[in-house]
Request: fold
Amino acid sequence: MLIDTHCHLDAAEFDADRDAVVDAAVASGVACIVVPAVGAFNFEAVAALSARHPCVRYALGIHPLHVDQADDAELTALREAVARSINDPRLVAIGEIGLDHFVPGLDRVRQERFFVEQLRIARDFELPVIMHVRRAQDTVLKHLRRLRPRSGIAHAFNGSVQQAATFIDLGCVLGFGGAMTFTRALQIRRLAAAFSPDAYVLETDAPDIAPSWINHQRNAPQQMPAIAQVFAELRDEPIESVLAATGANAMRVLPRLSETLAAEVFVNDRLSQPES
Reply:
């Protein structure tokens, strides 16, 4: 099953043709698109997208690049939003949360405090986490070891083999997308083949991190089949095996995804049966 585990479908870049983007993704074979929030200002937007499109699921969280503009009331707003939505099966995770030590000038202490509080929310509501870990893998791992959410995704992973192994040991999987399609991305491409098939999920991070063939253009979830093909080639595996493994991994680490997709498959199968 082809699942885009990380796509900012609510972004302004999709305002002109969002429905067409979803239709194109479905036509390309994408079964599900997970849309993480980045702050309280778009909690309602990502939930509304999920209500509008049967293939969309959502996560609620405060992105580390938004933390400097957020106040503590936003953490309260997140907890309250999760409490209100916890019975919505389309809410699959807390995310996008994490740390960014790449962008200069950010308050790292504040980032950590927001990350820790959001890990606590994930633990309290027994939800997995979708994590931004840019140049901050060791610090993210420190807090994961202490707070232990049920599972998670290390989005756009680009750390060391040792760091990757630790994420996996803690019940997380590694998110791979457009970055690995560049031949110069030697470390990411090595990581794509370094672990067993149950260690990975696929993603676009659309509209960002476009694959090499549309470099500097808008990324979109319809690129998933070609991204999956590159991943299969890097691992020297059949594309069918990659789709089966990465789809199963996504549903394992995001258990609500498994429940809702299985229910939809059952309903669709029933509807497609001829009347007796």
About this structure: The chain has one domain: 2-272. The chain is about 45% helix and 15% strand. The chain has a mean pLDDT of 95.
